[in-house]
């Protein structure tokens, strides 16, 4: 499943294609949404927001298209009416005088009045989106001490979209590694300094992943390995998907385990419990 940085990058592409342009044609694959086609024709896209793994396309007529890619959804931006060759099913199409924004395979699509967006079942429960909302490191550290979150293991908490929006499986392992936090620990077990490191790790890695297209390893090290011809899968992350390989910091063997029914990777030395 794409994580927050991937959805924000997709939103950027959709926004570049549609913003400040009049929608000339609209297509919804689902019958219950067909009545909205005429409503949105002639409207102007004013911005594209994200809330974790959800995308919100805002129109000047007071309506918003909500979509969630789930496992298989994918956006394509094409010149007007130039559809990609794919076996995926087209679910939503927005066309202006130059571009077509096409959403394939996703099934979670709704049209909402702007005032209905905050109370949407997903939006109302999800935590802050670090790529679309202003959140400080201090605010994030304080959130970690909230009674809703402080006694939950990091390995579980970081996947909770109600804690922070958009963090998924690869970011979970990477954040804990950069913060030097063992997966079995909880925020309540951590010192103020450790919480500060965790908050910085979350902020920095989400932003870095967004800027680099998913690279969470040290950028200089990643570039050096790339220049040496190393496969991207071997230099992309610090620990994720590197079970049995050597830690880039200490040389210890990266361990793989399972938490919340999903694979998790960590360095037993760099992330040891002190």
UniProtKB/TrEMBL annotation:
Give the Formamidopyrimidine-DNA glycosylase catalytic domain ranges: 2-90
Can you cite a GO biological process for this protein?
A: base-excision repair
Keyword Protein transport included in the entry's annotation: no
Where does the FPG-type domain lie? 238-272
This protein's source sits in the domain of life called Bacteria
Signal peptide (UniProt feature, chain positions) = none
For this protein, the Enzyme Commission number is 4.2.99.18
EC class of this enzyme?
lyase
Keyword annotations from UniProtKB, A to Z = DNA damage, DNA repair, DNA-binding, Glycosidase, Hydrolase, Lyase, Metal-binding, Multifunctional enzyme, Zinc, Zinc-finger
Instruction: Report the sequence similarity comment from the record.
Output: Belongs to the FPG family.
Which NCBIfam families would you find in this protein's record?
A: PRK10445.1
Name of the protein = DNA-(apurinic or apyrimidinic site) lyase
């Amino acid at each position: 499943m794409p994580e927050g940085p991937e959805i924000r990058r997709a939103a950027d592409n959709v926004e570049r294609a549609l913003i400040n342009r009049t929608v000339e044609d609209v297509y919804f694959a689902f019958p219950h949404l067909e009545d909205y086609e005429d409503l949105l024709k002639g409207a102007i896209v004013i911005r594209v927001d994200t809330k974790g793994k959800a995308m919100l396309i805002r129109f000047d007529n007071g309506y918003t298209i909500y979509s969630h890619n789930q496992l298989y959804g994918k956006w394509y931006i094409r010149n007007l009416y130039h559809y990609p060759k794919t076996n995926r099913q087209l679910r939503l199409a927005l066309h202006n005088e130059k571009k077509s924004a096409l959403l394939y395979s996703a099934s979670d699509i709704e049209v909402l009045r702007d005032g209905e967006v905050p109370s949407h079942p997903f939006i109302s429960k999800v935590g802050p989106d670090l790529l679309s909302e202003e959140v400080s490191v201090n605010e994030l550290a304080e959130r970690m001490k909230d009674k809703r979150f402080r006694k939950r293991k990091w390995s579980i908490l970081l996947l909770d979209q109600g804690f922070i929006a958009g963090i998924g499986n690869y970011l979970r392992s990477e954040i804990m590694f950069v913060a030097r936090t063992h997966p079995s620990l909880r925020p309540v077990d951590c010192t103020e300094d450790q919480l500060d490191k965790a908050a910085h790790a979350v902020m920095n890695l989400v932003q870095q992943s967004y800027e680099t297209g998913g690279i969470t390893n040290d950028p200089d090290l990643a570039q050096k390995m790339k220049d040496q011809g190393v496969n991207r899968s071997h230099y992309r992350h610090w620990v994720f998907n590197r079970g049995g390989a050597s830690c880039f910091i200490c040389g210890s063997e990266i361990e793989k385990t399972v938490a919340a029914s999903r694979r998790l990777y960590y360095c037993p030395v760099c992330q040891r419990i002190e």
